[in-house]
Structure formats: C-alpha cells, structure tokens
Amino acid sequence: MAHEALFSPLKLGALTLPNRVLMAPLTRCRAEDGHVPGPLMADYYAQRASAGLIIAEATMAIEGNSAFWREPGIYSQAQVEGWKRVTDAVHAKGGRIALQIWHGGRACHPLLNDGATPVAPSPIAITNGQVMTPQGMQPYVTPRELRDDELPGIVAGFAAAARNAKAAGFDMIELHGANGYLIDEFLRDGSNRRSGPYGGPIEHRARLLFEILRASVDVWGADRVGLRISPLNSYNSMRDSDPVGLTAWLAAALNDLGLAYLHVMRADFFQEQKADVMTPARAQFSNGLIGNMGYGTAEADAAIRDGKLDAVAFGASFLANPDLPARIAANAPLNAPKPETFYTQGPEGYTDYPAMP
Length: 357
Ligand code: PHB
Hints:
The chain is 29% helix and 17% strand. With 357 residues, it is α/β, with parallel strands linked by helices. Helix 1 (39-47) packs parallel to helix 2 (77-92), helix 3 packs parallel to helix 6 and helix 7 packs parallel to helix 8 (278-284).
C-alpha cells in the first residue's frame, strides 16, 4: 500500500479513525429551502464515507446569519431531521462525520437575511471580495458592532446548535474559528478593535471562543469537540499583527480544555501572509493536530511519519474524488475538481464525480 502513515489508525478524542485522510469542511450551497439538508447532501456525504473523518460543511448555529446562499443550518427541527438523514447515510456506509458549526459574522449580508445588518466585533467591512446573493455577487456591508451584553445570546445559540448536532446523530462537532467569520473576527486584531473584556490582548480576543468551546464541551465532552483556525488567511480581509504568537497562545490555552483536536489551515488563500504556524501548533497543543491547505499525499504522509501532524484534511481533492483514500492507497490518478460547480445547485459537480472503476 502506498503512503502507509496515512493509513495507520488514529485515536482522535473519543473516536478511532481507520485512516488519516480526512475530508475538510467544504461549503457547497446545496441545502434546500429553509437551509435544510436534503437527500442530495446525504448522497454526497455517503459517497465520501471512507474518509477517516468527514468534517461536514460550515453550518449556521443561529437563524438569520446566512453568509452563503443555500448553506445549511442546525437551528430548526427540519434541519436536525435533514442532517439525521445525512449522518444515517454516512454511518450505514461505516463512516464517521463531524459537523462544523459557525456564525458568519460580518460576512453575512442583508440580502440573505431579510434585510438584517450583519454583526461583528467592530464595524469594519470586508473589502477584498464579494458575497453571492440571489441578486448576484454583491459587496459586503459594514457590520454593526456587537454589544458585550449580546454575546451570551451568541454563546447560547452555539450551545443549542451543539445539542441539535447531537440529536442529528453526528459523531463530533468542530467549531469554525477560521476564515474571517465571527469567532475568527474576535480572535484577530485586524477585525477586533474593541476595548473591554472581548478586545485588546489575545486573552480578551479569545474570550468569546472559549465561552463557546466550554458550552460545546458541556454538551459533547471535550473528546468530541474540535476547533479549526486559519491564523494566516487573508480571505475576508483578515489580518493579525502576530499570527505565530496567536497560534502558539491558542494552542497552549486549548490544552486546559482537552479538546479532541486542533485543525489548522497553514496558509493564505491569497499568499499575502506567510509564516510557519504548524510548528508552534504542534509544540504547544497536546492532542490531535490536523493540517490542511495544499498538502500533497507524499507531503501529508511524510508529515505524519515525522510526527509533525496526526492527520491531514483534504478539501478540493476529496470534493472531486469520493473514494480519495482508496485512490491514495492505490497511487491511482485523481479526478480534477471543477471550480465552476463548487457553489452551484443540483448534482452536477457534486455527486457525479466518479469513483475508480
Ligand atoms: C469557510 O467556511 O471557511 C469558507 C467557505 C467558502 C469559501 C472559503 C471559506 O470559499
């Protein structure tokens, strides 16, 4: 078998994964009306059940915070039932699936949320991209600054989402602390200009994250909760003055909770911010470390063999290859992803990528 380290089992928190080829969370915008996962999503995830762990796409914790047209939610009973179809389909094929729970923060748009202005730690708009809406691509708007007294409601919304994810049959949850959405907006100092308990030093900027983590751990136990971060990614106009220090501080602070894993996006979509955040993450964090972004299979295998990482999450290649672990094991060629169908509707470019003959 090629790439043996990728195919050694891994204990990740409470789960034992049969391989270390994980499926990264991927926004695909295929939910039905009401942000409800339908049968098409169940097919898509079931096709990918051979992943060591599927981390399902960013899913709205709290109603009214849509940042992508047709992303799923986990706040309504219909959504819980829709996700139950997905988790049942994955489990029937012997797989394991975590739900990624998020709040879109300033990346939400009034056209996706009945005219509501998005909220954020500070009133600073995203300027390096646009948002997809039913009326085409639109510029982001300036968000409203959240008051400190609104934050307990957000923590409670995440707690309810964590309970709903349990009812929907997931094996774990991952908190989305990456890519310029609400948790990340608090963490990084380019988007968080607050004073008071939630702004200023990293101990304060991480307060909301830790309140959400503790509420999630109360529901699931720490060994079924993970966190994803992207300290370098400038997507969504994100910046931090000290991404390596932020990573090291967070990785060390997370040990007190005993989380199952830390999932680190190691790079920047736009290649503007460059540093090594994997080494400090590994040095400080005691439990599972998942790497993501641009790992080829040989590099992923070597990183695991050398103890730099425990597992690698593959995004575009898992999207395009439902049987990615088998292909890697066989050194078989991979289907190429088709970016033009990443965020469209229906099965095209979603459930029609072929498995190996
Ligand atoms: C994310 O959820 O982090 C995300 C979603 C879609 C993108 C990039 C990032 O295009």
